[in-house]
Amino acid sequence: MYKGIIDHIEWERVHLTLSGTLTEIRSEEEKEDLIRLREFAIDVKNMDKYNYNKTRYPEWLKKIIGPSYDFEKPYFFLRTAYYASIYPIDAELDQDGHFSIHFNITNFRDRKEIPNGQFQISVFHRGIDFALVASADVAASVFELSRPHIFNKNTECYVVSFSTTPNEMDPVLNLSSFRFKRKRKRPFDLKRIFRETRDTIIKFMIRRYYAVMYYLVPKRGKRILIATEARGNLQGNLEAIYNGIIRRGLDKKFKILTSFRKAAGGHGSRASWVKVITDVAISDIILIDDFAPFLNWLKLKPKNKLIQVWHAGVGFKSVGFCRFGGKGTPALDLGHRQYTYAITASSVLKSVYSEVFGIEESAVIPTGLPRIDELLQEGSQEAFVKEFYEEYPELENKKIILFAPTFRGSGQRTAHYPYSLLDMKRIYDFCGDEYVFMFKMHPFIDEKPPIPDEYKDRIIDFSAFPNVNDLLRVTDLMITDYSSVIYEYALFRKPMLFFAFDKTEYAAARGFHHDYDSFCPGKVCQTFDEMEMAIINRDFEVEKVDQFIRDYFDYLDADSTDRFIDWILLGGLDHTEQGAKNQN
User: DSSP E strands: which ranges in 116-253?
Assistant: First the structure.
């Protein structure tokens, strides 16, 4: 029998960690004290009301644990004081009794947040369970440890707070979680009411149409939908997968459907809506490469397997549920939760994708990113370089500096970049006859770089170039900030700089998964002067690139597309044994 104390509580984004120590009790006097403490924690005056003797019966907890129950092993639970709700939780426990309990508050169980209620953390051991108590330091700081999370356009709040029972000697720790929604008082607006009523009716009709089509068309595993709601054509991972299917002749075995719409803002023609909902309903497997907003209000049925082949190498800046509680926080029931699986480049990134999408780590499959295959294929480099310089012969004897930052702003409508931080004359001067400085701005940024006409022989805007990955082949030095393009460029083992003039502000607004400076595979510069001197002195810290590749790529074999196809279409990949296959 044990007694337990929680002596440390720590937050990291949506992750909550509680740690402490279990101490084995040997004397009968201590055991009696612990039993009294347990009864005090649940309020003995109400034992009959809450059927105390029945619900506390050890066989009930053993049944929850299942056939793996071991009499000598401690088991941890999150439960209400009267056992109306009880959830097994995982804990790390070493031989000295030190334990660590980890929660993702947005993805606690079944892709849901910790439910509303007040809970205690208890340990079940040798037929007796007991609530963990708080140390004096933890008990004194419970109010500071509480976290409110404002989300869903500031209309909802999810609060996780702590308190203790009124027992000064052994205060039991309570964890409370509550979700509130604010009722907005809006002035009477007939147009708004009409619009919202119309949208509600349309969504209802779409749901009914989806259900009818879903049941009308049998699911035999042969119909694949390749779709995007963010782009008007095939790009990135979707393009690589589609081309791989055609190359292997699998389009003769499977029916391949496609849907490409720039409808992320909820727009689109009636015909396009009918087509995409029909294609979704009748498909066995749906591949998407970005967020599809209609998933927020259209619940897919079980035989529609939804696979996210994310267009970016997540793991740098915070997106999705990683931003929970911050600016731009999504709803807790966001459509990301519907992904059957998501793919990634590395086993190391499984935890990141799990947090971003609010899904289990077991649903994140490190097949490698299909779009990277083309960069690693033998002969592809030489072919593109030859074609590029035939089209742009004036660049052939120049070294190319590619400037490819991400956008600033909350999204596509507000996307911008502060060009005023760049001194075009100094860029022109340090380029000399050796370099050209090439802009490749994020597609969300409409404003073109303000390049004076007299500098356009050395400073060039290539933002309209269709594929940034191809530009990486001819780039000698890349300058970026928080863009995921670093994943592809790292594979060339060429130098890169990070012009992060606003990293403190960006970290506060968006957040990072890792310490920014140690994560970046190159030198970090916070001012234009630092960036200029790094280029002049060739101070790129290029030695960081190899370690970055070892950390964030399981495969370097140009076979990620085939791995994905074998797994998702042919069932030939045992994804439970992924990882540790980096061929660096």
Answer: 117-125, 128-131, 133-134, 147-151, 156-164, 173-181, 223-228
